[in-house]
Specification:
Blueprint (H helix, E strand, L loop, with lengths): L4 E3 L4 H8 L4 E4 L5 H6 L7 E4 L9 E3 L3 E5 L4 H6 L1 H6 L1 H8 L4 H6 L2 H7 L6 H8 L2 E4 L3 E3 H4 L14 E7 L3 E8 L6 E10 L2 E7 L6 E2 L1 H9 L3 H5 L16 H20 L1
Parallel strand pairs: 1-3, 2-3
Antiparallel strand pairs: 4-5, 5-8, 6-7, 6-8, 9-10, 10-11, 11-12
Amino acid sequence: MYAFTFERPATLADATRLAGNTSAKVLAGGQTLLASMKLRLASPEQLVDLGAVPELVGIRREGNALVIGAMARHADVAVHADVKSALPALADLAGGIGDRQVRAMGTLGGSVANNDPSACYPAALLALGASVRTTQRELGADDFFQGMFSTALQDGELITAVRFPLARRAAYIKFKQPASRFALVGVFVAQTAHGVRVAVTGGGNGVFRHQGLELALSRNFTPEAAATVKIEAGDLSSDLHASAAYRANLISVLTQRAVAKALG
């Protein structure tokens, strides 16, 4: 391993100051960053570990929403009583990320900031209409995610928490890529007071909402309604794991299963 300095700030103010260093990388769960460093795909001169910042942890209910700290581990989200009772779909999603080792170390904020095009959490944020709280502002999920590994975060801006509005019904279903356990395709369906939102991960160049499915399910929240929507393959990914046509079929099938799960 090449030489770098390691900082472990104890306050959010210190973490923000250190993160402003252009030669630094912020370490949340490390599930992507450390692997990238081992492969020499990233070579920061400084690591800023957020694990000792108390302002970034915690899961709490705020009115008709859940607020989850950026440094909440996947394993903690999966078993937290408030998440399981208020947003069981989110607890289910967190419990299906990677394996036990990944869930024990990976964090909500790290996953959201990285915005891997096959990650699970971005689908939950987009489908539930969540908002991302940072050291500078609060952004809606529709504005936050901007394509593959790209977000609206500015240099030195840190995620502090994510606010998830509660849904009337919600469910997440994913078809795992066997080796990585990322979503080959994942679909999060949420029925809210303002209609239905459907977010797809693993299908293309980043997480996205599917308007055709949302319109059909807002009229009739049933698997049969989802089955009537034609999923176009034109903008979907095609690679060694699955063709665009295969992913299009998965989106349809998984949406139907997610609606059935939400209803059941």
